Amino acid sequence: AKSAHSNEPCFYDSQMDDALKARRELIADLRTALEAEAFELHYQVQAAIPSGEISGYEALIRWRHPTQGLIPPSIFIPLAEKSGDIVPLSIWVIRQACFEAALWPNRHIISVNLSPVHLADPRLVETVRSALADSGLAPERLTLELTESAIIHDRRFALEQLRALKAMGIAIALDDFGVGYSSLDVLRSFPFDRIKLDASFVAEIEHDEQAVSILRSVAALGTTLNIPVLAEGVEQAAQLSIVSREGCSAVQGYLIGHPSRALADAEQVRQTMSL
Ligand code: C2E
Ligand code: CA
Ligand code: CA
Ligand code: CA
User: Fold this and answer.
1) Which of 214, 201, 86, 98 is nearest to 150 (CA)?
2) From CA 241, how far away is CA 259, in angstroms rounded?
3) What residues does ligand 1 touch, defined as CB less than 6 Å away?
4) DSSP secondary-structure letter at 246?
5) CA angle 18-21-27, nearest 5°?
6) Which residue, among 78, 142, 148, 139, has the nearest Cα to 119 in the 3D structure?
7) Of all helices (H) and strands (E), which one includes residue 194?
8) Any long-range contacts for 241-246 (C-beta under 8 Å, 24+ apart)?
9) Are 151 and 190 in contact (CB under 8 A)?
10) Alpha-carbon distance 169 to 223, whole Å?
11) What is the pTM of this model?
12) What's the gap in Å between 18 CA and the centre of ligand 2?
């Protein structure tokens, strides 16, 4: 390809071509992957504070690529959102999560990440309704996790969708709280059942008093609004003790469990939580 500015070195262009080609190939692979059932859901445990009881699991998608190995969602979800493949992929995630969770021995909550693109799809409510009906999963056991970016585009339609989903009995969690730009307004205007405080706030709490103050304020906000706050990305016991002390209701993170095909051992989680 020719550079738009003829005096720029050409290798930038060929590098861009390569990246573009790799992207196109991955998108093509994505389409076959759905048919080949090359995706799988891994589950990461969440636990309540202070009981240490398992409160649910988050479903996190993985792609077993035939030549590239296990590809993380941060690579292919954004691609699928741009290529238009996210809706069929997301329908697969919702149905798979419902069918798998319906078979769990304990009736824990399953949280599923919902792409902003899928929230804008008018057929979403019907998709969720039929996933619940076909799998037999009780609506109370399903939570959809949404980031703020999902609701800033068409707020009225987003609100309509969330209300219809909630009317069905499922819960809605606000994901990655704190890293967006309209958090407080969004909390006031949308019917969230849970707040997930972004991991970036937890990462520094051992050495950053300001991060602790923010954590404390968000926990207090949750108490005031009567919305439980879950702290994401808890990796160390010291972080767990701070988020507990500051009033968070639940935790998720490598300390209590990595995403995995296997469900967590309740006794082990309880022990880790009591450290
Ligand atoms: P997220 O929803 O914020 O999910 C949490 C991410 O943090 C997951 O990464 C998880 O593996 C990772 N994580 C959990 N505990 C820890 C910890 O203690 N330390 C650190 N450093 N990381 C931790 P993952 O699985 O790579 O997913 C990345 C993002 O991809 C998710 O962020 C979510 O936005 C998106 N995603 C994952 N699965 C799906 C899906 O099925 N549908 C959609 N639309 N998006 C998905
Ligand atoms: Ca999430
Ligand atoms: Ca998150
Ligand atoms: Ca995230």
Assistant:
1) 86
2) 22
3) 44, 59-61, 72-74, 77, 90, 93, 113, 115, 175-176, 199, 233-235, 253-254, 259
4) T
5) 145
6) 148
7) strand 194-197
8) 242/205, 242/206, 242/212, 242/215, 243/49, 243/202, 243/205, 243/215, 244/49, 244/50, 246/212, 246/215, 246/216, 246/219
9) yes
10) 22
11) 0.93
12) 31
| DSSP state string for 24-87 | HHHHHHHHHHHHHT-EEEEEEEEEETTT--EEEEEEEEEEEETTTEEE-HHHHHHHHHHHT-HH
* Ligand nearest to the CA of residue 172, numbered in listed order: 2
Q: Helix 124-135 and helix 155-167: axis angle, to 10°?
A: 20
Convert the pLDDT of each residue in 151-207 to its tens digit. 888 899 999 999 999 999 999 999 999 887 767 888 888 999 999 999 999 998 999
Q: Are 54 and 264 in contact (CB under 8 A)?
A: yes
Distance from C-alpha of 120 to C-alpha of 142, rounded to nearest angstrom: 19
Could you give phi then psi for residue 151, rounded to 5 degrees? Answer: -115, 0
Sequence length of the chain is: 275
- The ipTM of this complex is 0.98
